[in-house]
Amino acid sequence: MTAERHIVRQRDFSGGEVVEHAKRRDDEPAVRASCRTQRNVRILSTGAIEQRPGRTALFSNEGRVDDIRMTDDYSVFLCFGDDGSLTIRSEHGAPLARAYGYDWGVNGGIEAVVARAGNDLVITFPDQAPKIVRWDGTSAWSFHDWAAAETTGGQKRVPFLRLSPKNITLLPSARTGTINLTFSDDVLVASMVGTRIRFIDRQIEIATVVTSTTGTGTVKEPLPGSQALNLSTNGLTSIFTLGEIVEGSVTGSKGIITTLATGAMTVQLLTTGTSTLILGGGQGPLQGDDGGIVTGSAGFTTADTVTGPGGAFVPTSVGAIGSPVAVTFWDEEVFNDYRGWPQSCASDQSRLIFCDFPAVPEGIAWSALLTFDDFYPGANPTEAIFETVPRKVRVYNVTDGNDEFVFTDLGIYYVPISESNPLRPGSVAFRRIPGAPASSVRPVSTAQGVVYANNAGNRVLAIVGTGQTAQPYVIRPSSDLQSHLFTGIRCLAVEEGGGSPPDELVYAVNDDGTVVVGRYQPGKEWPGWVPWEGDYPVRWASAASHAAVFSVDYPSIWLAERVDADRYLDGAVDYDAIPGGLAGLLPDDFGTEVGGNMTSFG
């Protein structure tokens, strides 16, 4: 009897191209649905595969191109040039506005991060202040440097934090005007001129630097002074100690004891009973303080019972408010020309978000609600927020979702947000999601979850919801069976039904110019990843409301190309309908497709 050979026909190819050492895992469903080689194919919703689409050439741009959706019916291209330019083009490639003089230079904006906040496109980039590309809502575009708001009273609306060593004191010579600044140890450098510090929550702009410990400043908010409190009988040293904070029962004034004798003390005022309240106070060394500006001459009075940690007394006399005295209660701007600028941005909950600060890598700043130039933290629900992530991490990116996700070099966190717990001052909590740390590559949101690249840039992972209260999110590996395809991920992009067929695809562009395309299959625990090859390297991919757009580096020209199921070639154009952005750029020896009118750079 002759045994018959049983042939199993494979109909499902949704596993993509798997790594060599996984190809004997017949017990693994994803492997059974894979191929030894899947090149230049597209996985369909049925699990079948077809030849990948070609790409239509749109225009030339020597650098990164981002597809940006401004409204449901208006999209533009944001084009970074390696000549330091920035260009806005219509969805058909026509230039609308252009500016020069940016720092991205020859890298073509690869390190830039872009966020849309209202009608503004906000761009962060290492070693430069954030940039703004502003749409007027109809047809006009303009270019600006991001600048913090400043109140009519002179307060700059940025976060402050103590960045210098904690034990250094600051002595201002007066409460208003141009004053001398004296530090007890090295702080000042020449590049700090024009930046701001705060003395007990009141801002001073540094005007000159004389030495590392001395300089001058312009007072932007009148400073609190010092005051003598006297007792006719001795005994204060048995009740109080230097450095304690005391408070008056009637005026509500607060002060820190700077000198102490048996019958007298001097306090540096922190607040007084004649403060004028302003919005956004109370962040910094005296976090929780009301943020008032001293506008009167009154502080403690003889009507006060002065209370401290060790006891209380009623002063028999008080002195007039004099010049400030040296204390350690001062801090500095988190970001400026000296401390560096945010290197990443995002937009969520009607707030602009800055992070990846050189001076405070673990910090995240949320703007005031619908006010994208106001980052001065406060207590009111609409005011700005500044928080730091635990463990001294470096925050690379913040991404929106049902909650907010924070991607750091030591792991992933989420910030719970709900109707009962909206994003507001005092509500921010960082909860860890166990899993691999992130790289600086911008994560992307898909219908299945948030996709990100690990810190080595050779692995794609997804944050997915569990439906559980105790552990609402888990991190699942998404590319381990295709690990050989990822060699330094440069960017991620997601195509959400904008192509043909209207599938959801994830694109990963590697540093070597190769592209890997992933498709998540409904009802299956794995995505399938396949490489899309071409003769020339892809440097960037972006997708918004349409099929993905690639930035392709040809030998003599870079092209922005849209994935197009009606094309058989890459870099394709109709020779009888050359796009305006390519006019005069086409070589004379272009070939044509047999039987058609299509030609190609590729």
Structure description:
With 602 residues, this protein is mostly beta strands. The protein contains one helix and 50 strands. The strands form 13 sheets. The protein has a seven-stranded antiparallel sheet, with no helix packed on it. The protein has a seven-stranded antiparallel sheet with strand order 27-26-21-22-23-20-28, with no helix packed on it. A four-stranded antiparallel sheet has the order 5-48-47-46, with no helix packed on it. It starts with 15 loop residues before the first strand and ends with a strand. Mean pLDDT is 88; it is low at 275-296 and 588-602.
- What class, by secondary structure content? mainly beta
How many alpha or pi helices?
A: 1
User: Kindly, what is the distance between the CA atoms of the first and last residues, rounded to a whole number of angstroms?
Assistant: 57 Å
* Spatial shape: elongated
Largest beta sheet: strand ordering: 14-29-17-18-19-16-15
Record field, number of beta strands: 50
C-alpha Rg (nearest Å) = 30 Å
Uncertain ranges: 275-296, 588-602
Profile the largest sheet: 7 strands, antiparallel
Helical content (DSSP H or I, runs of 4+): under 10%
Percent of residues in beta strands: 35-45%
